[in-house]
């Protein structure tokens, strides 16, 4: 970078001015290019380290300030290639790539550079694709401490790997957003229970609550008994309503997005990519907390390949004893993380609720049920997605209902978003109109 700085006409001029210690009068640089004038305004925050310009960045979050390399134009593509396109970069979007850039470098018009690079990424481009229903207001669940509430899901089936794996079991902490993922050969209840112990309990202790969908493995006696022995509670989503666990659904999409870009042609090495995906995800700033999962759990950033290649400029701030400093950092990060989670959840709920409406159904009322599941022997193109009428037998809460098709039929628990008023002829519970 020192050579690139010296070869950059504007940065070389700025470096020479900083080394001289004399800030020129505005009249002398008013006719210079816009970038040089921008650095004139930042002159007091600039220094030179081993021939490279360094900018001292200050922000109102734990750590207060840190030093960033001023990135020469000639190095932009190479750095963004590492931050975005490498396995540890993860081909994440503009926001996360920009956040990573800001951890090491200062770049005028950095957002435009990142946007242009991501738009030009062939791997990303190859992966991207181009009557009003009831939508209940959003319910938000905010956890207050690490690994208090855990979400879990199983992704697959995927192509069988050389190690015999076909599925991915995922765990993610609601508070820190820390993910754990393991490749597994099957999704039996025994395998799921063992993964919970190995991936979470052995590392972070027992969560108070585990949230999952209604898959047979999670509803099995083996899994329930495991949680009972551990002393953890179990909650679940309603069928065909993945929004009730949107955090995990987004992680699923992000993981598939990552694997699809880096998997080999026969798609059988995806399990070997999981550790690098976890590295990439844990080290990226999460929008909800404002920190990376690594910062929320470890109190520090994890070391990435770029750290070994060029390091990070030292902050120059006095260091506290390690344990005391770590305790203070964790306290500050968690307090700010809680505030960010509450603010993020509030903004998401306000935005979601403006576009949605809630309809209340009464006990005994007939309703349609949205059920787009494919049926064997039937063409999905000719299949009706709505079935019924069902009758509401119980309103469990504002958004969850128990319904049944016949008076003595098996009840179903569904989310209100899957229901619609039935306006056809009256139907008795024996199915006669």
UniProtKB/TrEMBL annotation:
Return the protein name. Answer: RNA-directed DNA polymerase
**Which InterPro entries has this protein been placed in?**
Integrase_cat-core, Integrase_H2C2, Integrase_p58-like_C, Retrovirus_Pol_polyprotein, RNaseH-like_sf, RNaseH_sf
What the entry lists under PROSITE patterns is as follows: INTEGRASE
Pfam families under this entry? Integrase_H2C2, Integrase_p58_C, rve
Top-rank taxon of the source lineage equals Eukaryota
> EC number(s) per UniProt?
2.7.7.49
> Transmembrane segments in this chain: where?
none
Question: Which SUPFAM superfamilies does its entry note?
Answer: Ribonuclease H-like (SSF53098)
Molecular function (GO) terms for this protein are: nucleic acid binding; RNA-directed DNA polymerase activity
What does the record list as GO biological process? DNA integration
Which species is the source of this protein? Phlebotomus papatasi
